[in-house]
Design brief:
- By secondary structure, the protein is an alpha/beta fold.
- It contains eight helices and 13 strands.
- The chain has an eight-stranded mixed sheet, sandwiched between helices.
- α3 crosses α5.
- The longest helix is centred in the first third of the chain and has 19 residues.
- The radius of gyration is 17 Å and the shape is globular.
């Protein structure tokens, strides 16, 4: 039986829901929808209460979209923790999925025994990774050694979800930073996280292929994010990442 899939989707993002639901149906995968928290609709009191428990300094203050995103992922973790399944898959609603996704999810015996999280996505980022310890659909599974951004597609263990639900709010930061910024998040440092290479998922905002991008943009970042994925900026990043011994993680 395939791993349960939890899809985070705003009520107003009907187009995104249709896009992902249609792709999952084509792949023969069912999902449960998580009604996302709309940060723009939180009251001033709700935002102040949230931020007061999770203070960030200067330019790293909480944006409305980041608050909604974090709370939405928190709801997904609650679902994983409450289920009987060993792992659950969290997806955001602008995700592109590879044709091999069913092969990866239908038998998860490949997941390393110590894995808290397995990242399934590419964000165009080069990452420091350990040696392959397993394979899924002929794709190596490697330990994540560096900071990563993006929380569009990841497997999480029930134990890890339970731990995150009980984490100190003062340690909580925007979802991808909280889970994957090994340079700044003590939670990320405490998690054993793996990466599948090549990735089987990519968020539309990180797609380097203009021909297949749906143009959804982002509810959090600015629309200039794609500039980092193409042209001279991408070339410069490839050079510096190679010199640092990092590995390209592409979507395929």
């Amino acid at each position: 039986m395939t791993v349960p899939i939890y899809l985070i989707n705003l009520d107003r993002s009907v187009d995104r829901l249709h896009f992902v639901a249609q792709r999952l149906e084509t792949l023969g995968l069912s999902f449960s929808r998580i009604a996302a928290v709309d940060g723009a609709r939180l009251t001033d009191e709700e935002r102040i209460s949230f931020i007061s428990q999770r203070p960030r300094d200067g330019r790293r203050g909480w944006r409305q979209g980041q608050i909604g995103c974090f709370l939405s992922h928190f709801h997904a973790w609650r679902q994983i923790a409450a289920a009987s399944d060993t792992y659950g898959l969290v997806l955001e609603d602008d995700i592109h999925l590879s044709d091999v996704t069913p092969a990866v999810l239908n038998d998860i015996s490949w997941i390393p025994a110590d894995a808290d999280i397995v990242r399934l996505e590419s964000t165009g980022q080069w990452l420091s990774l350990g040696k392959p310890v397993a394979t899924a659909a002929c794709r190596p599974i490697r330990a994540l050694r560096s900071a990563a951004w993006g929380a569009g597609a990841y497997l999480m263990s029930r134990e890890a979800a339970t731990s995150l639900l009980c984490s100190d709010p003062a340690l909580q930061t925007p979802a991808d930073d909280f889970l994957f910024n090994r340079n700044g998040s003590s939670i990320a440092q405490s998690m054993t996280t793996y990466q599948i290479v090549p990735a089987i998922a990519v968020q539309d905002k990180f797609s380097a292929e203009e021909a297949t991008a749906e143009g959804f943009g982002s509810n959090i970042e600015t629309d200039t994010i794609n500039a980092r994925l193409r042209g001279f900026s991408a070339f410069r990043r490839r050079v510096t990442s190679t010199l640092r011994g990092k590995t390209p993680v592409e979507f395929a």
